[in-house]
Design goal:
GO molecular function: ATP binding; glutamate-tRNA ligase activity; zinc ion binding
Number of strands: 10
InterPro entries: Glu-Q_tRNA(Asp)_Synthase, Glu/Gln-tRNA-synth, Glu/Gln-tRNA-synth_Ib_cat-dom, GluQ/Sye, Rossmann-like_a/b/a_fold
Helix content: 25-40%
Structural class: alpha/beta
Distance between the termini: 25 Å
CATH topology: Rossmann fold
Organism: Escherichia coli
CATH architecture: 3-Layer(aba) Sandwich
Oligomer: single chain
Order of helices and strands: EHEHEHEHEEEHEHEHEH
Strand content: 5-15%
Largest sheet: 3 strands, parallel
Enzyme class: ligase
Keywords: Aminoacyl-tRNA synthetase, ATP-binding, Ligase, Metal-binding, Nucleotide-binding, Protein biosynthesis, Zinc
Length: about 280
Amino acid sequence: MLPPYFLFKEMTDTHYIGRFAPSPSGELHFGSLIAALGSYLQARARQGRWLVRIEDIDPPREVPGAAETILRQLEHYGLHWDGDVLWQSQRHDAYREALAWLHEQGLSYYCTCTRARIQSIGGIYDGHCRVLHHGPDNAAVRIRQQHPVTQFTDQLRGIIHADEKLAREDFIIHRRDGLFAYNLAVVVDDHFQGVSEIVRGADLIEPTVRQISLYQLFGWKVPDYIHLPLALNPQGAKLSKQNHAPALPKSDPRPVLIAALQFLGQQAEAHWQDF
């Protein structure tokens, strides 16, 4: 739980842009609501804009109809976004352009290494294909790390140090199966949308240094980051679609919103007249 009033102190910032970017792999649950509400309140407290982006770049993981359901859930819980929803499935040309630029600058390369090979050497890629000059056939594209980012400042948690080996790894930006990698798409789209601060769950701390390294390679301004605590189930695991977290209730949203506000350390009192 957050300390009371750590976030959401009202101030004017006409350039503030926040966002919520769910993947359509299922309906929103209480953990999703924490991330959505936290980013929404931060944007409104800064008198900024709050955007919604549907990260539908991984069709095998998508649940039919989930994207539309997510948007209806946000509206039902009073989280109304600014502007149009951005769909990553409509942004492939932008990702291809980013990949082409990185290739032209010598900042990426093709890799044919299998997961089995990488697991056999400990799970961290060793740069095996850096100098082998593979072509694009049956190959992934990896970033050629120049100046790895090993730490960053989280506006809530302070300085966060990344695992050195993971931070220095040449990570994948375009998958062997032809799909664009999350780290590339999220950076390209956050820059495109002018996002100034990313408020999301603590489960996304680990890829942050990789995303910052991409910002730096592109020469783009790095946004601020806030990683919120995760809501856990009774077994101590984070609430997630993979762990079959129950979807948000379709009934009166106020009790759930009050619980979410309290989780975020905000004073939220319910009175009998509210129900």
